[in-house]
Amino acid sequence: MAKSAAAHIHRSMTMSEKIIYFDNASTTFPKPESVYKVCDSVLRSAGNPGRGAHRLAYNSSRQIFEARECLADFLGVADGHRLVFTAGCTQSINLVLTGLIGAQKLRAGDRVLVTSFEHNAVMRSLACHEGHDGIEVVQVPAGPDGNLVDLAALRRISSESPKPALAVFTRASNVTGALLDIETVSRMLEDADIPLLIDAAQSAGFVRDDLSHLTGVTYFAASGHKGLYGPPGIGILYVRSQNFELDPPYCGGTGSRSDSLAMPTFLPDRLEPGTHGVQLAAGLAEGVRYVLDHGPEAMLARARSLVDYFLFKTIDIDAIEIKGRRVDRDRLVASLTAAGLMPGEAQTGSILSGSSLAASLSSQSSQPSKPSQPSQSSALPSSASPASGLTAEAAANSAAAADTAITSSSSSSSSSSLQKRRMTSEMSREPQYLPVVVFSYRGLTADRVADWLDTGYGIAIRAGLHCAVSAHKVLNSEKTGLARVSFSSFNTKEDVDQLVQALQDLSRMPA
């Protein structure tokens, strides 16, 4: 038995070394080498944090404290105690929903707003409470051009009486990659006095939201194993108010106030019973440091250029239909020309090639990185959009310039011009995207395409409904599902070339 298990592990490791991985929206792979190392190191020397005065317990407590402070700095949170470590984003979401119901802040008949693109981490959790606790889930219609929310509809629903008790919105669709206009949405809900829970499972790390400016975000949930490059099994929950009203859904030891059988009333202890996964917290912090060292704006710009390269290379494969975003050939040509990636042009020194990947990312290690301003255009600067195709260094510099311009504009504008900008920001416009693409393949199911790529070429993608059937209803793909390709900073131009070649081979197969 032991020999068989060892052989299976060896086989899995061998397979992972050969695989071309495009399923980063599920979990990023590989992780930075430093994440593997710190998880192993901490696990070999971990005591129980907060449960002893000996050096192993102290060192583990220090790891938890430093990880919490690292995440707080990344998110612009002044008080790290407002950040709760969880088992993942799904648990973070459930802590809020169950906690609000336990505290009688969500009651039978209360309405909870969601987008049309929510993951089952939200929809199943709400469906459970809808059936057991009598809350009502209200879906805000999607906006035009791929936007997650119709802002006019949201404004209308938010002003209805009685007002909704809570909004639970994804920061980014795990199906299309479209990003929520978080500044406009959070401000609108804040004006209506509606608490907002953001599901940032997909966006955290790819986008660096500054929660000190996004005052309309009441709760912020994120997973550690995706864009933050941490290990599986850990997530975070940010709770804005010091006078928070969340009942703990489960109780236990915390290492604090042990003389009382009541759970502590303060964060994070109230929502963190039991022993921490110290190695998970340390690994997550190391993943965040990796993102900070290389610059989230530059990493996103690079991954978006890979998306543009994929879209351009597949635009003439008739069997492929891209879903959820517009594909404009002229825009792609401009983007790829700027990046030096147009097929037929010299590729020397391209930041998307495997040979120059390490150098292009390492060039960012000396660039200071700060949380973005809250507007969608600054959280994902236009200078780092798919159309730019910038090098890592240029993307970081342009992002800094965009931040400076926005800050300067904000400080000098009058209240009337601010109102005008707000009205303009609520007008329909095409959303920004994470490096995620979904497509259908004429004549084949998404599962068949994924199996073809995996077994024939060692390429991993995701197929199906992606745990987000409501998003597929918007795309009219709920019966068939879609194939999804999602990128990380470890993907290269050569990876995309091999993926496109495999899809071209598939198109030549007899029906």
Automatic annotation (TrEMBL):
Keyword Transferase: yes
An example Gene Ontology molecular-function term: transaminase activity
Domain Aminotransferase class V as annotated: residue spans: 20-356, 418-499
Protein name: Aminotransferase class V-fold PLP-dependent enzyme
This protein's UniProt keywords: Aminotransferase, Transferase
Species for this entry: Candidatus Obscuribacter phosphatis
Bias type Low complexity, positions: 405-417
Pfam families linked: Aminotran_5
InterPro entries: Aminotrans_V_dom (IPR000192), PyrdxlP-dep_Trfase (IPR015424), PyrdxlP-dep_Trfase_major (IPR015421), PyrdxlP-dep_Trfase_small (IPR015422)
Residue ranges, annotated region (Disordered): 360-387, 405-427
